[in-house]
């Protein structure tokens, strides 16, 4: 699947290919602090940014960075550095009608005041980390 997106002010736009339609929500303490709530993202095969000079990157861990528009503050992506793998935040897509919530991770760190509807996998942080270490 291909798609386009942009930040709130339009200083950064993107075109992405190889996009998974399965949305994953993360409730880890870092994502909740970063987004103000659960993070919703999809993995992409390739992304090209226009207005790259307006992207600030923040190393949120040894293995990952987060990108945002330095003009309006829109959160754009989460990137695994070693694999150069981008996950784009759902709120930045121009059209999100093709996507479906497929799972939640770090459910054990989820704040108590919300729950996401649907019948999909819900993994604790330990279960999620074990699943990616075994792949």
Automatic annotation (TrEMBL):
Keyword Cell membrane: no
Pfam families reported for this sequence: GFA
Alphabetical UniProt keywords: Lyase, Metal-binding, Zinc
Database matches in InterPro entries: CENP-V/GFA (IPR006913), Mss4-like_sf (IPR011057)
Domain of life: Bacteria
Domain named CENP-V/GFA: residues: 3-115
PROSITE patterns (UniProt xref): CENP_V_GFA
GO molecular-function term, one example from the UniProt record: metal ion binding
Record flagged with keyword Acyltransferase: no
PANTHER family found in the cross-reference section: CENP-V_GFA DOMAIN-CONTAINING PROTEIN-RELATED (PTHR33337:SF40), GFA DOMAIN-CONTAINING PROTEIN (PTHR33337)
Annotated family: Belongs to the Gfa family.
Protein name: Aldehyde-activating protein
Biological source species: Roseofilum reptotaenium AO1-A
């Amino acid at each position: 699947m291909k798609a386009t997106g942009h930040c709130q002010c339009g200083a950064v736009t993107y075109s992405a290919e190889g996009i998974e339609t399965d949305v994953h929500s993360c409730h880890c303490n870092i994502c909740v602090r970063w987004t103000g709530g659960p993070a919703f993202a999809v993995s992409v095969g390739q992304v090209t940014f226009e207005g790259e000079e307006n992207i600030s990157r923040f190393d949120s861990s040894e293995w990952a960075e987060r990108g945002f528009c330095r003009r309006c503050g829109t959160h754009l992506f989460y990137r695994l550095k070693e694999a150069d793998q981008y996950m784009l935040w759902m709120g930045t897509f121009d059209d999100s009608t093709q996507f479906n919530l497929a799972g939640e991770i770090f459910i054990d760190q989820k704040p108590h005041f919300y729950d996401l509807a649907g019948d999909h996998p819900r993994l604790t942080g330990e279960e999620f980390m074990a699943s990616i270490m075994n792949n």
